[in-house]
Amino acid sequence: MTTSVRVSTNQISQDYDVLIEPGAIDRIRALLPDAHTYAIITDTNVARLYAEKIRKQLTNAAVLTFEAGEANKNAETWQKLSDGLINHNAGRDTCIIAVGGGVTGDLAGFVAATYMRGVPVVQVPTTLLAMIDASIGGKTGIDIDGGKNLIGAFHQPHAVIIDPDVLRTLPKHELRYGLAEAIKHGAIADAAYLQWIADSMQSIDALESNAIMHLIQRSVEIKAQFVSADVQEAGARAALNFGHTIAHALERVTRYAMPHGEAVACGMVVEILSAEAAGVTEAGSGAKLVHALEGAALPAALPKGTNSSEVMAAMSTDKKARAGAVRYAIPARLGEFSADTEGNWTRPMPDDVVKGVLARLSIK
Ligand SMILES: NC(=O)c1ccc[n+]([C@@H]2O[C@H](COP(=O)([O-])OP(=O)(O)OC[C@H]3O[C@@H](n4cnc5c(N)ncnc54)[C@H](O)[C@@H]3O)[C@@H](O)[C@H]2O)c1
Ligand SMILES: [Zn+2]
Question: 219, 264, 341, 364: which sits with the fewest CB atoms below 10 Å from its CB?
Fold first, then answer.
């Protein structure tokens, strides 16, 4: 049971394949490009579980480990990993293997983008979120005090290798956070897929192999479709930000106590209900989305005590706000997303409408 999805970069760099194969990590040597040396970059949790399995298949591989957690996706870790490469005599003929979640992928990808002005990286994502989202599209980077992901580079991977079997060790809440992005994929590109997720939640939760293969493959296809259409994020890729304008504000007002996956779930609900109220999105879309999210045990209402004015204020300073007006990426109906007649992929919405929905959802 193997499938692969080709990601086109429209000649901006090499196209690459996303391979989805149960057990891929056990035969990864055969799947990696030839290189003089390899450097496996991974976090402390994933190192314990999978690093040795990979290292022992390779004759010339170092393992560079950093402490797990978003708090370590920073310049200090980037420096330590780069120093680690120097200490292992890594050169331009070294291939970096990023084994882990999105934190590892972003960090290792950024190390690969900058080390000696760029060395190849193979992404081996081990969270659902990294498999269907972070590992595809070439965005790499680190956080600074001024904000998340503010320092970074586009650096397309040489390949993405997904072994769905590793989800067995992933904590269940991490699986749910990935599902928020999968539901988003359905909402922006494929209503039947959204319905399938809602109907298949038991099989997905039990990690039944057919369900997990379909989930990963369809989401990878959708993510690949949007990034290929817009490799450097100037237009269509904005669709992938559905729910994220509100989500980023919720993360900021909760000082990142709210996990991204939950923030995206709430954010999609607030944005789609606001869009319904503003006549932008087909009526009834929000209810279907809420049904899918609740099935995945994701929140469809805001945490108690959320202050809608604070959320509005946090949005107006978001880096995605342009010329003062907060913009949202909203599907016209579930499964359909397109630019408006002027070619804009995002749109403003009246503040009072959004604020009204926020207020309504935070007293539930
Ligand atoms: N580059 C992009 O396009 C992009 C897109 C979306 C998100 N991101 C980034 O991704 C990051 C979030 O990624 P994440 O949610 O994967 O978080 P993460 O990398 O922190 O992983 C979550 C936790 O799961 C552990 N883990 C990973 N795989 C495991 C496995 N198979 N078994 C057991 N434990 C495992 C990790 O050690 C960590 O504790 C954020 O920094 C975000 O900015 C990047
Ligand atoms: Zn997201």
Answer: 341
Residues above pLDDT 70, as percent of the chain: 98
> How far away, in angstroms, is 244 Cα from ligand 2 center?
7
Report the separation in Å between the CA atom of 339 and the middle of ligand 1, taken as the mean of its atom positions.
30
Q: pLDDT value at position 233? A: 81
* 214 included as an active-site residue: no
Pocket of ligand 1 (CB under 6 A): 43, 45-46, 49, 68, 70, 73, 100-104, 106, 126-127, 129-130, 133-134, 137, 139, 148-149, 166, 169-170, 174, 177
- Closest to 107 in 3D by CA, of 44, 162, 58: 44
Residue 79: strand, helix, or coil: helix
Phi, psi of 308 (to 5 degrees): -65, -30
Nearest CA to ligand 1 atom 30: 170
Among 202, 112, 192, smallest CA distance to 152 is for 112
Question: Is residue 248 flagged as an active site residue?
Answer: yes
Contact 270/246 with Cβ under 8 angstroms?
A: yes
The residue whose CA has the least distance to atom 5 of ligand 1 is 134
Q: Residue 79 burial (CB < 10 Å; 0-12/13-18/19+)? A: exposed
| Residue reference for tokens 């035969």 | 27
Are 32 and 97 in contact, with CB atoms under 8 Å apart? yes
DSSP type of residue 21: -
**Ligand 1: centre distance to CA 275 (Å):** 30
Residue 67 half-sphere exposure toward CB, CA atoms < 13 A: 6
Nearest CA among 228, 245, 210, 301 for reference residue 1: 210
pTM value?
0.97
| Range 286-307 average pLDDT | 94
Q: What is the pLDDT of residue 136?
A: 97
pLDDT at 319 over 70: no
Selection from 95, 101, 94 nearest residue 129 by Cα: 101
Phi first, then psi: what are they for 213, rounded to 5°?
-60, -45
Distance CA 43, CA 100 (A): 7
Pairing of strands 3-7, 16-20: antiparallel
Distance (Å, rounded) from C-alpha 245 to C-alpha 273?
Answer: 14
